[in-house]
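[job 4417] fold queue: 2 targets
>>> target A
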Amino acid sequence: MEVSPFLALLLLALLSLLLFFFSAGRKTSPSHAGGRSLPPSPPGFPLLGHLPLLGSLPHRALLSLAASHGPVMLLRLGRVPAVVVSSADAAREALKTRDPAFASRFRSRMTERLFYGCDMAFAPYGEHWRRARRVCVLHLLSQRCVLSFRRVREQEAAALVGRVRAAARDGAVNLSDLLISYASSVTIRAAFGDCSSYGLGGGGKVRKVFDDLEELLGSGTLGELVPWLAWVDTLTGLDAKATRTFEALDGLLEQVIADHRERRRGGQRVGDDGGQRDFVDVLLDVNEEEDEAGGLWFDTVTIKAIVMNMFVGGIDTTFASLEWAMAELINHPDEMRRLQEEIRAAVRDDDHIIEDHLNKLHYLKLVIKETLRLHPPAPLVPRETVEDAELLGYHVPARTRILVNVWAIGREPTTWERAEKFLPERFAEDADMDQYMLGQDFTLLPFGAGRRGCPGAGFAMASVELVLANLLYHFNWSLPGGASMVNMDEQGGLAVRLKKTLHLVAMPWCSE
């Protein structure tokens, strides 16, 4: 449920009481652990630590704090210590030089509840994570697997163009809704195959559930950080919402897996109509192979957890990247015209774009790369230390949460000239996406780096390139009502999105 005005006033009064006892002028003295210096830390609040400083957009607040306290900074999030990394040098040391020491992920109550405590993305470093990641990389997200879903992407991109064309007849197009429908459809078809039997065509029925899931993952629980405020999670309805969301998704996944198993018993392999096996079918293969070998670790619960990871990563990354790219291009019409000219010259006599065209589109890759620099899908990359470690000369104790602010690193003024400007040409000599998707350049980390880097980057970017090219080939775009700029305010969450829905006028373009 929504927080009532009365509750909001109650919480405000509580925070005001704490602020009354806080002396803002008090400076934090240098911290030491066994004679070793901990990272610098700004003044905090009693009991809450630095939580009130984060606000609704933590990546921005943390950049402001780093400007005063340095690229490696210690915060107290309630009772939980967290080190914030805000520079390329610090990220390189944490995610490459000392990657094994920083290789875990912290467990939260929310991820435990929503991902069964046995997924891949949020799993702590260990044997389960290694085996789960190996299955995902080899069987679900390899280059061969990504290519095998080409037909799905091309069909859904063509369907999106058709929906835009139909919506444009009635005025401005709600492009945000259409983009998330596209991202959901591609991901659901890859995960489930023929999703029509589950009532998921276009992603409409499940949209609200996935929106709730993302909101829950982005919010976390206050009681975990400040135990004496655990009652707030109940009073605001957060606990009830988490239960409802989990039950809805769990019921859907149980239905899908049971249906796949039933068809397999009849000798069928479930897949998309093009013959490609979907994620659930592949994971059931792994389950049966492990069962025959006497290893039962990869059970139904683990399959559900990994499919949930695929949903969150695939939908969020694709949708957020596309929405930010379109918003930036609307605000930079010269860059949009240049990209449209490139696309239309490359396609020429064809009436639609397929993936064969994408290798000819050099400027398209520059635009996507610049979009990822300014708007990384996940602005804060979480880690946790598995042992005592050092970072730029500071001591970081074992089991300390690490937050790598990739949003801040992408705007570091010592690295990027005119860092706040949208300038795709800055990458003119370096259009290759692989080093960024693999986390090999620590000045730009949209998908993280090291052994915990996102293995699904190739899957998401294939969807982004194809749809962006199609939208700019088939339509000329503008803002309704004579407006000249998209409002670029952000909405926080697991993936940071535009705060306001992107409504645009789409004028069909004819090549003749």
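>>> target B
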Amino acid sequence: MRKTVALSSEMARRLATPNPRTYIGSGKVSEMKSAIHALDVETVIFDDELSPGQLRNLEKVFGKDVRVCDRTALILDIFNQRAATHEAALQVALAQMEYQLPRLTRMWSHLERQAGGRVKGMGEKQIEVDKRILRDQIGVLKKELESVRRHRKLYRNRRVSVPIPVVSLVGYTNAGKSTLLNQLTGANVLAEDRLFATLDPTTRRVQMKNGKEFLLTDTVGFIQKLPTTLVAAFRATLEEISESSLLVHVVDISHPLAEQQIDAVDKVLSELDVSLIPMLIVWNKVDKVSDPEKMKAEAKSRGNVVCLSALNGDGLDDFCNAIQEKLKDSMVWVEALVPFDKGELLSSIHRIGMVETTDYTENGTLVKAYVPLRLARLLTPMRQLYVSP
């Protein structure tokens, strides 16, 4: 039975800079080669991105039967296995092709050997043909994804016409975002204890106990050193985040590398330019830490953190209350006279806004409330009807 081994701390070495030819030093390459042959290894995985030249040189040293896989290729493979919808498959295929394009030279080295030195450039010609085919396929995929992007934009525009606040769940992969969505909405979204279980955004309506509503969107999980090709390919999906009224950063607080995961998510969010959107931090899986009460006390002292367990529902009420308070910060104050024949609009104010007072007059209902900006725009003509005494 063949084995797959990853480069672990036992086979790591500190270098000032990566070796331009083989990423690691020649001594470590020789050590790994011996281990590969001794263990009959089939795949060697590097926890970093390797250049095309480094991949080619390492495969030459390790032998043609050994696959050298870098971090990006591994993540793309996982994404490919998780892609359950047409959109996700398109996005992953695009990222894979763009990753493969500069690495095609490894696939055609056998043609140069077959030429025997008598016909120059035989392999090079085949490489150029293959690159042209791949570029054409990339162009087709980009057009399809642009169509998907336009469709998503139309969908978001329709959603804007219904002025309900949008809350997006973001966080490291496997932090529990889908479980939280399911717990709040009964959405039955796939939630498994594995990396990248969710690739497509899912939006569901959440109704709190006090009758208030908001839309909750589950997004693709992030990871340290997320490949730029994936960020670009998933642009249509990640644009859902930029349309949010509030971001909820879900953290697996029980994970030993929670701080590093938080930094990784913050880095991706900075690349998406969403720093102006308010954020709430959620420490999930608090039931798995050694001292849950101490963790809850620390979260309370920070002020912007809510502790919960999405799996068993502990802390969901605190979470919903924190969402309501955060959404209030993004709302605007209005005083409007709503005509009696606009009962549906008045209902929306009570459902998604925060009403301070209502007074019934001869001409309609005078409402003083905090409402989302989208709803405030709909109320503009009615605000003009009201003149403060």
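[job 4417] complete. Note on B: Residues 347 and 353 are 10 Å apart (CA to CA).
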